[in-house]
Amino acid sequence: MGRELQKKKNKSSLPKKRQNGPSKKKVLSNPIIAKHWNQKETLSQNYRRLGLTSRLNHATGGTEKTIALLGLNDPKSSRADTAADSTANRLNIVSKQPVQAVEIEEIEVERDPETGAILRITGQKEEKFNPLNDPLNELEDSEGEAEEWSGFAMVPERRENEAQNPVISELEEAARNGVRKAPRKQSEREGEWLERLVNKYGEDYGRMARDRKLNPMQQTESDIKKRVKKWKAAQSA
């Protein structure tokens, strides 16, 4: 019976579900991250190991339950699945508005001498001077001086007693020094194409751009001129 079922299953037109293997994609955008990337780990695992985060807010779906993450629930953290000193917690966007302390004011009242109940309010609340009836006048400070925005100048570069990740140090150093990508090199086929154009038209870039056979991609005159100049510089070097 089992053999017949196997035959029937093999003849079925339904596609067999196969488990996808590990991704073979290579990280080419950043050489520092590519150097420390582990192909056997997922994107979240790599980012967590490198001290980075793949999203600014918390995960919308399920998260991987690791020994390091289970039972954290750090009260100082805005996320239950990360510690307070983690990168994900620092970049987390908190949707709840922080609770603000209510300002306490004093006012004179008249109470019943027997029951102590408030009969009437004798004093008046001191109102701010607002001759133009500005609705935003109540939001200003009592001294009338607004707190100056200092941007991110008050954010510390590193927390106390925190071990700096070497990958983060390399990324910060590269960003500080303004390291640029290596210039694009012309391929061998592009060099052959430019050589045919130069042999036929010399330095007449207008005719090069109008040639439909040698310029099937309709590169502009200025673009061809720039490519030829770069090609000649590589030939003379």
TrEMBL record:
<comment type="similarity">
    <text>Belongs to the NOP16 family.</text>
</comment>
<comment type="function">
    <text>Involved in the biogenesis of the 60S ribosomal subunit.</text>
</comment>
<dbReference type="GO" id="GO:0042273">
    <property type="term" value="P:ribosomal large subunit biogenesis"/>
</dbReference>
<feature type="region of interest" description="Disordered">
    <location>
        <begin position="212"/>
        <end position="237"/>
    </location>
</feature>
<feature type="compositionally biased region" description="Basic residues">
    <location>
        <begin position="226"/>
        <end position="237"/>
    </location>
</feature>
<keyword id="KW-0539">Nucleus</keyword>
<feature type="region of interest" description="Disordered">
    <location>
        <begin position="1"/>
        <end position="30"/>
    </location>
</feature>
<comment type="subunit">
    <text>Component of the pre-66S ribosomal particle.</text>
</comment>
<dbReference type="GO" id="GO:0005730">
    <property type="term" value="C:nucleolus"/>
</dbReference>
<feature type="compositionally biased region" description="Basic residues">
    <location>
        <begin position="8"/>
        <end position="27"/>
    </location>
</feature>
<dbReference type="GO" id="GO:1990904">
    <property type="term" value="C:ribonucleoprotein complex"/>
</dbReference>
<dbReference type="Pfam" id="PF09420">
    <property type="entry name" value="Nop16"/>
</dbReference>
<dbReference type="InterPro" id="IPR019002">
    <property type="entry name" value="Ribosome_biogenesis_Nop16"/>
</dbReference>
<protein>
    <recommendedName>
        <fullName>Nucleolar protein 16</fullName>
    </recommendedName>
</protein>
<keyword id="KW-0687">Ribonucleoprotein</keyword>
